Structures are given as C-alpha cells and as structure tokens.
Amino acid sequence: MADGPPHPESSNRPRSDLLLVLRKFLTNARTVATVAPSSRALSRAILRGIDWANTKTVVELGAGTGPITAQLAKVVPPHVRVVINEYLPEFCAALRHKFPAMDVVEGDARRLTEMLAGRGFTQVDYVLSGLPLTHFVPADRDAVIDQAGRLLAPGGEFRQLTTAPWLYRGLYRRYFREVSFRLVVWNLPPGGVYYCRGWIPPEERAAR
User: Fold this and answer.
1) Strand pairing category for 124-129 and 103-106
2) pTM of the entire structure?
3) Are 178 and 197 spatial neighbours (Cβ–Cβ below 8 Å)?
4) pLDDT computed for residue 157 by the predictor
5) Measured at the alpha carbon of residue 39, what is the angle toward residues 177 and 2, in degrees to the nearest 5?
6) Element (H, E) at 86
7) Mind listing the pLDDT tens digit for each residue in 29-86?
8) Which of 70, 132, 155, 160 could covalently link to 33 via disulfide, CB atoms 3.0 to 4.6 Å apart?
9) Coil, helix or strand for 158?
10) Domain ranges of the chain
11) Which residues contact 187 (CB under 8 A, 6 or more apart)?
C-alpha cells in the first residue's frame, strides 16, 4: 500500500522545533546554547556503539525538542529503561507530545541523583548529555558531571554533544580518564561527540 501524504502536524514539526529552539536561544542562551536542534547524524553519533544487550538504563540530559530522543525511540530495546530530562517546560511539553511512551522528567540536571532516586535508580549505564556544560559556571558543571559519574555502572559512559569540535577535550579529561571524540560534519554548525569513561572523583582531581 502506498504511503499517503504526510500529516500536516508531522510535516511542520521540524520547522516548529527550529523556531522554538531559536526563540529560546535568543531569550536564554545560557540554557539553550544552539540556534537549531541537533541533526539526525549528530543524534545517531551519540548512540553509536551502545551495548544494548548489556544495558539496563539510559539517561538523556538536556533533551530539548527531542532529536536524540527520536533516535532512541527507534533503537532502544524493550528491556532498557530510558529517562529523558529537560529543564524548560515548553520543551518538556513538546517531548511528551511527540514521545508519549517515554519517561520525560522536567527538572534541573544539577539534581540528577535525586531525580533518578525518585524512580528507583541508583546506577545507570549511559548518560547522554545535550546540555551546554561549557556555558555552565564551574560549580554547576561539576555538580552535573560528578553526579553522572557517581551514577555510572562499571564500564558505563558519559557522552557529551558539542558544536565546538575538539576544543573541550581537555576539559572532559579533567573529569574522566578516557576521552575520545568523533567529528560529525553534518550538523549546523559542525559538531561531534565526546565519549567519556572512568570518572575521576573530585578529591582525586584536587590531588593532581
């Protein structure tokens, strides 16, 4: 059976997402540090190589209008629990509308441990971050990354999107023993993903 014409709402969604992100960027660049949602290529890159067979829990931080969430929804196996976190109420409303089966949590990522404990999680396998962490003051960035690090299961990964390729590799090496980077040119602007393993606790960082 041939596909019919796209539903008006779904065909207009990429444009409406772009306008929503742009408006939030113009009014609150500290919270939304990009002028457009992440591309499909960048969203797929942050999921590349996830060991789904041995994964129980995935957390997405700073989901925005859901470009990564959309890719997650396509590939996540039924046995994997997924928590989608977003701070801005308008973005949360958009996420719940588009992904009614996903667990979307509105809240501050600086309270990540509390947020997950309320859902019965004390350990996660992957943290996928779209947060503009390099725009955070150091204490807030420490709070997010260190909570994520403590929550990671052995062998777990913290993955961070960026639109500044290679620039912040040294920053993430401050928090993790192993940091690699994959460039994604098909994004506006070109970006990439930091893949981070082996969280370094604050007391150990202070002793360096």
Assistant:
1) unpaired
2) 0.84
3) yes
4) 98
5) 135
6) strand 81-86
7) 454 445 456 789 999 999 999 999 999 999 999 999 899 999 999 999 999 999 999 9
8) 132
9) strand
10) 39-206
11) 38, 39, 41, 42, 163
Tokens at residue 9, please?
Answer: 């709402």
Say how far apart CA 88 and CA 149 lie, in whole Å: 24
DSSP 5: P
Q: What's the chain's Rg over C-alpha atoms? A: 17
Beta carbons within 10 angstroms of residue 117's beta carbon = 12
Distances (CA, A) of 55 to 27, 51, 60: 38, 6, 14
The β-bridge partners of 83 are 59, 103
Homologous superfamily, domain 39-206: Vaccinia Virus protein VP39 (3.40.50.150)
Residues of the chain where predicted confidence (pLDDT) is lower than 70: 1-37
Report how far residue 138's alpha carbon sits from residue 131's, in angstroms, rounded to the nearest whole number. Answer: 14
Residue 127 structure tokens = 């943290």
